[in-house]
Specification:
The chain contains eight helices and four strands. Strands 1-4-2-3 form a four-stranded antiparallel sheet. The longest helix has 17 residues.
Amino acid sequence: MTTPYEPSYFDPLSTDRLTNIICEVFEYQPLVPMTLEMEKFGGSGLYAIYYRGASIELYAPLKNYEMPVYVGQAVSNNSTTGKGVKSRTPLHGRMSQHRRSVGDAGLPLGEFFFRALRMPDVHANLGEKGLIRGYRPAWNAILSGFGSNEQGSATRASAKSKWDTIHDGRKRTYGSEPHDRAKLVTEVEQHILERIAAYDDLPWRRASTNV
């Protein structure tokens, strides 16, 4: 006679497990003011932008939470072609580029902060997916277009991005503006409230609280 038995399944490299680890380690990194003139540093990795002010009512609810408005990665090799990028400081360069974008849009730099973590390219690509999956930042999930580059006439003729619809001012040219600004604002407000409501239930936050 046999006894019903089925071993448990454990995947140490599952998407959920890696997401939790990456988000937990990332939150240990210091917040750096966007106004800081950073000395150049080499390497690839992950970065995030946080809002810590009060003048932008749309993002003010986030100021007391470890919840970024945007996350991204910068690597030294193109993930599609494998070719190396020209810069030896891709992470530093990407953060500097975003600081210019925030300033060009007329947003108060003093109310925005960076957090970053250097990683090998292969892990940075996976890490970015983990940060987006874990936090679902407003500029990634709702207001797409913040991290895009203007790359010629075809791009200049394309519609204004959702991010630029809300935060107009970057030195770019666009075609038509199909997005409803008021609708986007409402979507962001609802999204942020939903993320705050789920904040204490984020797996890596529960783990750190129970330590």
